[in-house]
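Consider this one:
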Amino acid sequence: MPIEQARHFMQAALELARQAAKAGEVPVGAIVVHDGIIIGRGANRPIGNHDPTAHAEIIALREAAATLGNDRLNGCDLWVTLEPCAMCAGAIAHARIARLYYGASDPKGGAVDHGPRLFEQSTVHHRPEVYGGICEDEAAGLLRAFFADKR
């Protein structure tokens, strides 16, 4: 994928992360792309929705599934500003996402390249292609600034 296109999609996810931060949520944003078109968007909303599953990825996957009218998102890509947790990685596998692009690594809570490395487990039925570090500095900077303000 051309670097300009990669930046374009990650910038859309970063804008959603900024919106989450303004709402007092951990700044994580996600989009689902199908045939070059954004079909699902999500910003973290666990606090606002009173829902521990309202992570940006889950919200974006739900919107994309509704848009396509299918629980399987074959041929879709997910762009997220932070390495997904175990819950979100499981949802990504169940949705059959083709490619996962993420910004900042998450050594504590991530489950793709850290922690349980979910997609490497023999029991996972679907493994997307994974590309990390897209606009990593900007994504990590949003998180650092958010948590610095909380201290």
Observations:
- The chain has a mean pLDDT of 96.
